[in-house]
Amino acid sequence: MSAETAAEHGATAAGHATEAASGGMPQLDFSTFPNQMFWLVVALVVLYFILSRVAMPRIGSVLAERTGTITNDIAAAETYKQQAAEAEAAYHKALDDARAAAAKVIEESRAEIQKELDLAIAKADAEIAARTAESEARIAEIRESAAEAVQTVAKDTTKEILSSFGVSADGRSVTSVVNARLKGGAA
Amino acid sequence: MAAEEHGEGLTFHPMDQFLVRPLFGHDGEVGVFTITNATLWLALSVLAIALLFIAGTRGRAIVPTRIQSVAELAYGFVHKMVEDVAGKDALKFFPYVFTLFLFILFSNFLGLLPMAFTPTAHIAVTAVLAIAVFLTVTIVGFVKNGAHFLELFWVKSAPLALRPVLAVIEVISYFVRPVSHSIRLAGNMTAGHAVIKVFAAFAPVILISGAVGVAVTPLSILAITAMYGLEILVAFIQAYVFAILTCVYLKDALHPAH
């Protein structure tokens, strides 16, 4: 029952719709064509002037400006890169120079120190040699005086011994005897 | 059961959305200068384009805002299209192609708003656009190339015997261009919008008959959604097709030799 009613209503509605559209597509209702065409031309002319006089030159200039800016920035970046590379090279050169200078200073200092050291060693050696010689001289002197003292003591002792035996002996013979004995003893 | 119908029933008015009506007064007469719903939606298209391309680019920023980006993208898109398809010497027609493309694009998209009127669904509108392109191409062709423009119809690469036959075909196809150019756009717009309206008419079935409506209403709403998605695609593609065909025809006018 309800489906039938719906169908009835549908049919009635369809009939009304056909009436409203004056028997077909509104697109083919030629009475509205002059109106649509007139307003379309007005709209298109307005749109054309808006776009070609205002919008497009503006966007075109913005795009050109942007391209220019980007190109300039890339060129500037290239320059800065170049400068950075140069600075780096200069830095490395300065570093190498400083290293070379430092090595030179070290070498010089070392040579100087070596020279001073050699000098000091030579001086010390000379001093040592002088001291040694002096000491040897003293030792020889001491030895000599000791030998002399031994001779004197031996002579005196011999004289004393002879006198205590009651024998007086002349100094000359005693001296010769002692000397002979000392030589023999030494030998 | 009859009480649930609210006295409505199924109503099919898929073509009513294309009616041209006066905005003011109810005498129903549409004269040449009458302000109609068509006038309103044409004006809205122009206004929307002006808003995007003038208000949106007011900053002239080197680093664009989002809206300026959109404007620049559209500019670049059509600029590239004209240059690639029609050649560098066709760039003086760039404002013309840009105007056509934007007008069709915005009319198509604004027409997808509920209760909207779509000027590009009307053969009166698309015919004017197509005939304008046809006349432009023909006049530019003869002005640029003189009688050599007729070589467009004389296929040199074909055997001599075939050339007259081909010439007839070429001439016919040349004059059919504005017809296909305009009907393609109006037809696509009309069909899509009408189909959405038909599905929309099925949506209130649930108010009439619960049992049938449970199945039909969700289905029709789903169908409206799907068609709407498709129509968004069609709205762009038809504007693109119209613009690129204009470029192809311009290329013929500037370089008629096959």
What does this structure look like?
The complex is a heterodimer of chains A (187) and B (258). Mean pLDDT of chain A is 84; it is low at 1-22. Chain A has a domain at 84-150. Chain A is mainly alpha-helical. Chain A is rod-shaped and about 195 Å long. Helices cover 89% and strands 0% of the residues of chain A. Chain B is mainly alpha-helical and 258 residues long. Chain B has one domain (2-254). Chain B is 66% helix and 0% strand. Chain B has helices at residues 37-55, 66-86, 94-110, 123-145, 163-202, 205-208, 210-254. Mean pLDDT of chain B is 89; it is low at 1-7. Classes of the chains: A mainly alpha (187), B mainly alpha (258). Chains A and B meet through helix 1 and helix 2 of A and helix 1, helix 2, helix 3 and helix 4 of B.
In short:
The complex is a heterodimer of chains A (187) and B (258). Helix content of chain A is 89%, strand content 0%. By secondary structure, chain A is mainly α.
